[in-house]
Amino acid sequence: MMASAIRSASKITEKIIAAATNLKVIGRAGIGVDNVDIPAATKKGIIVMNTPFGNSITTAEHAIAMMMALARQLPEADASTRASKWEKNRFMGVEVTSKVLGLIGAGNIGSIVADRAQGLKMKVIAFDPFLTPERAQTMGVEKVELDELLARADFITLHTPLIDATRNILNAETPAKTKKGVRIINCARGGLVDEAALYDALKSGRVAGAALDVFLQEPAENNPLFELPNVICTPHLGASTTEAQENVALQVAEQISAYLMSGEITNALNFPSISAEEAPRLTPFIKLAEVLGSFAGQLTETAIRGVKIEFEGDVASMNTRPMVAAALHGVLKPLLAEVNMVSAPQVAKDRGVNVEVVTREQQGAYENYIRLTVLTERQERAVAGTVFANGKPRIIRVKGINMEAELSPSMLYVTNEDKPGHIGRLGTLLGTLGINIANFNSGRVEVGSDAIALVSIDGTLTEPQLAEIAALEGVKQAKALKF
Questions:
Q1: Which sequence spans correspond to the domains of the chain?
Q2: Which of 34, 178, 328, 384, CA to CA, is 20 to 30 A from 287?
Q3: How far is the C-alpha of 264 from the C-alpha of 286, rounded, in Å?
């Protein structure tokens, strides 16, 4: 019956995909995101849907299975027994009971792994910049920094997207920070682990074993890790169960059916829930909400407890849901590459981020006003903006400091002491570095107090250049922003 349901759902999905251009909607069932040209689909007005949580349990269970197989050397013991060797004394394993499992990434799949590991009587610790203490307590895990996780974990499992911040998060420097004999499981993304460094650590014995479902290059062929007896490899099987495939296929068919029958849009990767009548009026405010979120998100480096979004004036009477989704997308995108406008509210909820929305009538000089506040473990940061007559979003207030700045693709954000000579020193240094200033905006709390500069620049700042700017007299923070 289950196989029949899968076949039926697959046939329905195939027919819908074949007619996608005419229907203006396409769902993804068993097709990688990279196989769908989302920008091209967007240009043609085709809505691209996915099922982001359909295979979460399956992937989490695969990680647990890999961990157990690694602990007891099951693949190698199986091969030895089939060869009639009966090497009972050769395969001395370890128990997982009472061992420490270190989660790198505690989102949807990571939280399921934590739950299953706790059922195995393991102690679970987690590193995740977005994990709040409250969410960690609910999950029953201990939140730690990465170095502490490396030092304490008997097993390490990765459940994080592959972005610049997580690429090679386990690298050549990692083994020296870990327990001798640690075991590593990766069922998330190839590229999270430096494979060459892992090879050396496995050869030296510093890492006792590794179980990998994903690789930097896929399909993986002639990978040096295949030569090692203490490595278990599977061909990206994280989502390969009949239940997961059935759930994903049926969900895609149901989503597309709902779209065709009632116009309902769920789990869209490239389209928010907006009616045709609302779109022209909402579009500039959605853009404003997203850039406000992006502004705050790029400056946030610790776990987010809450996000407050305030709408004031005419914008408060509009459909604020897509604007809230856009703002959360902007906040979360810097650390979660796969988040989108549709999934952002659910991702925020899953991670224990409290989202507060306030609407009120006009109180200040601006007819339309949006303020976004991000509350972290360390501080509260607020940024506000409006949309002018030309339809372009403008920043009008940052951290309580009034200023007016039109955003550009590449910007420099500087906080500093309001003292004579700062602007000159900053401008001179940027000139020396070959960075052209397109626009310079600044504001301050009061004379001699805190000040902010928001500089539109041509080109991109490198980390060494940012370090030079941060070293200027009176500078408290220097950050490169992208919009």
A1: 2-52+241-262, 56-233, 272-398, 408-483
A2: 34
A3: 20
